[in-house]
Structures are given as C-alpha cells and as structure tokens.
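User: Before I run my own analysis I want an independent prediction to cross-check against. Here's the chain; please return only the structure tokens and, at the end, one sentence I can use as a sanity check.
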Amino acid sequence: MVDVLCVEEDDTIRSLAGSILEANGYSTLSASTVDQAKALIEGEKNIDVLFTEVGLLGDVEAGLRLVQDALEKRPNLAVLYTSSQSVTDGMKALFVKNSAFLSKPYTGDQLITSLVVHFGLRGRETASVKVSDISTRSPP
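Assistant: Structure tokens:
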C-alpha cells in the first residue's frame, strides 16, 4: 500500500484530500503544522509521499524547508507540492528531485493522476473509486 503524508493547514482541504486518497486505495497520515509533520516523519510509520502545501501558517517557504528536512531522514520520499499562490521560478528552483507540483484548486482525479503519472504510485486495486488507467508509455 502507498502511504501519503498530507501537510495542509486548512482542515477542510486536508480532510478532503485524505478522503480522496483513501477512497482511491492510498493510506494517509495528516498534519496541519510543520511540527506535526516532522514528528510523523521522524516516527516509525511508513511514508512514501509527502504531499505538502508550499506555504504554511503565513510562511511562504515553510513547505519547501519541511521537504528538505524530510529528505534528510527519508531520502527516497516522493514529494508532491501544492499551493493556491503563484509559485515563482525561484521557488520552483528550490523544488527537490523526484517532485511534482499540483496547483490549487485541484480535483480528486488530478490528485490521483499526479501520484500515478509523476511517481507511478497507484492505490490498492480494490479501491472503491478508480481513476482511468493512465499510461505514461509512448505509443508503439
């Protein structure tokens, strides 16, 4: 199973993202602050993907720093950034390898598609909600 840590200060958005992921066969952990996220990252639970808001609690780069800290402890972590704010080229330059960006607002299909296309991570095959099969292979 793919385990996703959702870091989002807005309770409604965090809850909705978690529900979408779980309905599509992903396991989720959630945090509303950098400190909560760091505690989970330093813990024993498996985390495959860090899905984080770029700006948290008024700090426009908090998510970027969180990712840097997380990768020191979990170097194989896939990272999916999100934001409703404009992301500058300078901020994009701070994105880590093996990462992608999903602009807010996003749909459930866009969230799941991002995980599949960018990281090849699919939820359980028995998920109650399925996104169309997505192939990143070139046509023959």
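Sanity check: The chain has a mean pLDDT of 89.
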